[in-house]
Amino acid sequence: MASGTPFDNDFALLVAVLPPSLQEAVRKLPHAELLEVVMDLGRPPEARLVHGVARLSEAPVDQEALQAVLSRVGEPGGDNRAGIERTLHRVSAIRNRQGRVVGLTLRVGRAIQGTIDMLRDLVESGRNLLLLGRPGVGKTTKLREVARVLADALGKRVMVVDTSNEIGGDGDIPHPGIGGARRMQVSRPDRQHDVMIEAVENHMPEAIVVDEIGTAAEAAAARTIAERGVQLVATAHGNTLENLVLNPTLSDLVGGVQTVTLSDDEARRRGTQKTVTERKGTPTFDIVVEMVSRDEVRVHRDTGAAVDRLLTGADVGGEKRRQQDGAVHVEAAPEVVEATPPGGRVPKGTPALGAPRPGPTRIAAHAVSRELLERVLRDLPVEAVVVGRPENADVVLTLRSRANSPRLRRAAERVGARVLAIKRNSSTEIRRALRTEFHLLEGVDPADVHAAVSDAEEAIQRVLAEGISLPLTPRPSRLRKVQHTLVVKNHLEAVSVGSEPQRHLVIYPLGTVLTEASDTAPVDVEEAEPDDELEEDDALEGDAGPADDDGVAGLEASSPDEDGS
């Protein structure tokens, strides 16, 4: 539980609404651990604790017991919720098809000071703050404390839009847990967005606190409030930032998502597919906090940048904060590569979409035997795991005949996954594709391969970002072929120049090699020759399936140099 001194949570008033046969059993439970009491018709009543469930009685709940509780709290409203006046406790009803109450959930409400110590600096910043987390993780408790701190500690004019009376408690007089903040109740749940706008227009607040934004109308109202210069603190349905981005109803809270078709030149410059997913606009909330548990959160200080990284498949980052023994422990966000801004140039050092994520490479088998794939992976010295769906993969292995499936391509493009196409569903074909993908060369020191790949990747990023040509370090023929494969994947061109042992690749932006060659001595384009064990008719098969509309993969075929490469 969070540190701090709890307000009087009127626990005795919650116990008093229970049937007499259950009151003593509830009093014996540890009050700080109790979350809710559950009463379902025909079942034994239970108490749900932070760390488990306790049965309160062996006798099943009958209709008289349910009605006895309802008679003490009043009939639930349109949202099937009722409360105990001037307390934070909530009573929620479950009804049958005829509208009769057949179950009750009595949830304990608490106001705890100090529960937002982890977020105090964010609240004081004046920026819009959104809390995400699963039910029961303490979002509303923190929201209530935010309202008190804004009103009492910071002296702001605060308005709480309280749809189900969870923040300020039941009754006309709000609970002291919200301090000096004012509270507007909502007559029906579907009117929450109207009351949000009314709060801004009629009461001149400096900050507005809202619980559970869940509809498109409420998301639009939140954007209206933010655009009027009022600080907005709210919670929303969803556990993580990714959940929110994928929710079409609420994605506008973090900037919205749109699919954009790029021109051929722009796709080459970015090193991406022609169809990409981008953030639509400015997020409503400047900061997003993912609540991992009651005492641990992950903070995204720049919502727009975090969403951009998420859409490119990069590590979304985030600052971890944990509250323990009255102290806040902050783990700084790891250094992440900034994603390409919508319509912007590729920043220096930014990997193309589909670059490997941290950890083992995730491979999905599409129309290919998963058993064969797993067997081949066991024999290869690579860090990779097999996943079930292309949407969760970094690499999708499929048959050449299925590589152009629109559904597969859309799934791969959505997450930036690379598609490897093989001719037949056999272990030999799978091994061949994976050896090429992971740059495994027989008889070559893996450290030399890694150095050659790193050299090429760094040069590729500079060429993409700056539009210049760059020479690579001299390498043996087989390593130059690996480098050339990377060049082609990133929609660039390379020529092999010099004599052994100083022969090396020079990387050019696409379309510049022919122009330069017409004015200078002839140069040889490095040919991506198959491994020695491969059949000759497989040599033209690319890692990502057929060539794109501009025939980029066709750059691999050219006149060989003197060493046969």
TrEMBL record:
High-level lineage: Bacteria, Pseudomonadati, Myxococcota, Myxococcia, Myxococcales
Keywords linked to the UniProt accession: ATP-binding, Nucleotide-binding
Keyword Transmembrane: no
Stretches the record annotates as Disordered: 338-360, 518-565
Domain R3H: 446-511
Source organism of the structure: Corallococcus exercitus
Keyword Oxidoreductase set for record: no
Pfam families linked: PTPase, R3H, Spore_III_AA
Molecular function (Gene Ontology), one example: nucleic acid binding
This protein's name: AAA family ATPase
Compositional bias (Acidic residues): 524-551
